[in-house]
Design goal:
Layout lengths: L2 E3 L3 E6 L6 E8 L6 E5 L8 E3 L13 E3 L5 E3 L2 H9 L5 E5 L12 H10 L1 E3 L5 E5 L3 E4 L4 E5 L5 E7 L7 E7 L4 H5 L6 E3 H9 L12 E4 L2 E2 L10 H14 L6 E2 L1 E5 L3 H12 L5 E5 L2 H4 L17
Parallel strand pairs: 4-8, 10-18, 13-19, 15-16
Antiparallel strand pairs: 1-9, 2-3, 3-8, 4-5, 6-7, 10-20, 11-12, 12-19, 13-14, 16-17
Length: 306
């Protein structure tokens, strides 16, 4: 069945790039609503933006959506990953700023509150996108591919010169709350030199050692170190799940990313929907719905974060 959250949830923090206060609310929504974002700080004109792949304005640092009338919102990927990983299909997201709050740089604060409030079933079957043949998008920087598979799966590979990150790979089955157990607490990461450069250019003004893993060569500068030895690749998988959620329905198939970022994943979705024989839209019966991300996820399975 399609789902929504049991009650409204409120999150307050600063924006990663502006450093300004942000309030975000997740509001229950009815069947077939999907996920929409409302800019509550905009008083004139259209304030609604669909959380959809074809509304993405590609950016190297985050996922940014822009509506038909020019209203935009950025850094949506962690909330989208939390909704997908908890199996939430319908929700209205209200935000009073042009970016989402960063919190601790992962999806775990959103996941905890969603599962604590409860995810409720609605009286309508969920639809999913089944991959029928491989589709790939490639650049000089990296590539990503969708492949047929019996359930949602993901493989990711990254390579960084910084020894604190280095070369990391991870593959996993995304069904039945594995996102909640293995990925949701992994934080965004960056190099200390990149932080200094971004701030000099008026970016990442809200970035701190508390809301990102900051590395410098072989050193992790963030207090407490890493939550996982392979936290970086786990976060890349978290981001990818959030970006894939912009397809508008769960994807039954395997996503493979090699040094892929937000733009590559969005271009892969564009390539998929430009290839009609590469996928089909299916109405999930009980067996199929039971293997989707978030199905059966419980609060007591959430990654333990000190």
């Amino acid at each position: 069945m399609q789902t929504t959250i049991a009650k409204s949830l409120t999150f307050k923090d600063i924006g990663l790039h502006s450093g300004a206060p942000v309030t975000l609310r997740l509001v229950p929504a009815p069947v077939d609503h999907g996920i929409w974002i409302k800019r509550t700080d905009v008083e004139i004109g259209e304030t609604m933006i669909p959380a959809r792949w074809d509304c993405v304005e590609q950016s190297p640092l985050c996922t940014k959506l822009i509506g038909d009338h020019g209203i935009n919102v950025s850094t949506i990927e962690h909330v989208m990953a939390a909704l997908a990983g908890c199996g939430v299909h319908n929700v209205l997201i209200e935000v009073d700023a042009p970016e989402f709050p960063i919190l601790d740089g992962s999806a775990v604060p959103f996941v905890r509150e969603i599962l604590a409030a409860g995810v409720i079933a609605l009286d309508r079957p969920v639809r999913a996108i089944r991959i029928l043949k491989s589709v790939e998008f490639k650049t000089d920087a990296g590539w990503a591919r969708f492949e047929p598979a019996q359930r949602p799966e993901m493989s990711f590979h990254i390579e960084f010169t910084d020894q604190a990150i280095g070369v990391q790979s991870k593959s996993m089955n995304l069904s039945n709350g594995s996102f909640v157990r293995e990925l949701c607490d992994s934080r965004t990461f960056c190099r200390n030199a990149d932080v200094e450069m971004m701030r000099a250019n008026g970016l990442a003004l809200g970035g701190t050692f508390e809301n990102a893993v900051v590395v410098d060569g072989d050193k992790v500068l963030s207090p407490g170190g890493l939550r996982h030895q392979d936290e970086a690749v786990r976060h890349k998988m978290l981001d990818a799940l959030g970006d894939i959620a912009l397809a508008g329905a769960p994807i039954i198939g395997r996503y493979v990313g090699h040094r892929a970022g937000h733009a590559i994943t969005n271009n892969l979705l564009r390539q998929l929907f430009a290839t009609p024989d590469a996928f089909e839209l299916v109405v999930c019966d009980a067996d199929l719905a039971a293997i989707l991300p978030g199905a059966g996820a419980h609060l007591d399975e959430v990654c333990a974060v000190a």
